[in-house]
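User: Could you go from structure to sequence for me? I need the amino acid at each position, not a summary. Structure tokens:
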């Protein structure tokens, strides 16, 4: 038995797909189609037989590249495809590859290409929704262990992290970035200055460097700027060593869930009820639940529809610092 998982969405979605991959791998070999950005997240994963990179926006854009990939997948003779990303293109890819059983969500744009349609239940974590593609039971209640994302930093990632933080160093990881501008909480610099008991280490991509510079300046140079210096998997290793992570509703939140790092997640225009809240055993959420305009968008709009952005501006650094301290983080875990 062989299965193909197609997940070409955001980085966080790939992290949340790893429980589905692990479940499928209990009974069959599993290959994964993913974007170049997500491929590194699957390194060292014992549940994945092969990572098939599909650069749909650049190198593999266009019908000829699509046909080549479909032909390659067809040769593998997969027994089933699981459409963790529900676009028309992904559904058509599975059909063009002549995969007889194609499982996806009944509400997905590509549902016409599926042979099995699973209801996408609201009000549950997205990791549970994705897992239901394997179980066929969207109403089930998976255990915490079954839902925990799985990432496997190796010696390369540990060595890279050693270059950022010293062994046993007590620090708080801060992830101020997000693809969506309205999901970037502006209070990170002030928060870093308040948390004087920790050394702040800023994680994120190179695009987040300006945000990191603000945090470094606010702490008088005490903070460490690690943005753009680590791979995603090495970032997961750094987050694993942190006493706590403070993050927006973005990919680092899900890295922390995989590494079971205590997490404070800041939600503004979105809410955890969409299914993307923290899965770490010790976690807290900062958000203005009393605002009638919230949530205003499933992903986060480019601009506040009402122009005031109160959902983020009114979350104070003092309240987030209190959540960090309430978690009572212990000494950071050591590399294994």
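Assistant: Here is the amino acid at each position, in order:
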């Amino acid at each position: 038995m062989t299965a193909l998982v197609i997940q070409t969405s955001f980085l966080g979605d790939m992290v949340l797909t790893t429980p589905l991959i692990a479940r499928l791998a209990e009974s069959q070999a599993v290959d994964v189609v993913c974007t170049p950005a997500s491929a590194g997240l699957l390194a060292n994963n014992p549940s994945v037989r092969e990572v098939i990179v599909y650069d749909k926006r650049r190198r593999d854009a266009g019908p000829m590249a699509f046909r080549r990939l479909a032909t390659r997948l067809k040769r593998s003779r997969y027994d089933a495809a699981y459409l963790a990303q529900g676009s028309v293109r992904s559904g058509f890819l599975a059909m063009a590859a002549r995969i007889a059983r194609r499982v996806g969500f009944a509400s997905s744009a590509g549902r016409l290409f599926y042979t099995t349609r699973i209801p996408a239940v609201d009000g549950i974590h997205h990791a549970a929704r994705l897992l239901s593609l394997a179980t066929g039971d969207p109403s089930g209640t998976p255990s915490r262990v079954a839902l925990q994302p799985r990432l496997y930093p190796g010696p390369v990632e540990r060595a890279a992290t050693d270059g950022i933080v010293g062994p046993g160093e007590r620090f708080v990881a801060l992830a101020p970035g997000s693809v969506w501008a309205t999901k970037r909480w502006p209070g990170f610099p002030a928060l870093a200055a308040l948390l004087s008991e920790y050394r702040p280490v800023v994680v994120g991509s190179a695009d987040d460097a300006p945000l990191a510079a603000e945090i470094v300046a606010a702490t008088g140079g005490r903070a460490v700027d690690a943005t753009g210096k680590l791979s995603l998997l090495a970032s997961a290793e750094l987050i694993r060593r942190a006493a706590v992570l403070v993050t927006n509703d973005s990919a680092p939140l899900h890295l922390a869930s995989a590494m079971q790092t205590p997490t404070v997640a800041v939600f503004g225009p979105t809410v955890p009820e969409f299914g993307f809240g923290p899965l770490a055993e010790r976690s807290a959420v900062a958000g203005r639940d009393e605002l009638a305009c919230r949530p205003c968008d499933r992903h986060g709009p480019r601009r506040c529809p009402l122009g005031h952005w109160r959902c983020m501006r009114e979350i104070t650094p003092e309240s987030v610092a209190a959540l960090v301290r309430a978690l009572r983080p212990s000494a950071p875990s050591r590399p294994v």
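One structural detail worth keeping in mind: The chain has two domains: 2-147, 155-326.
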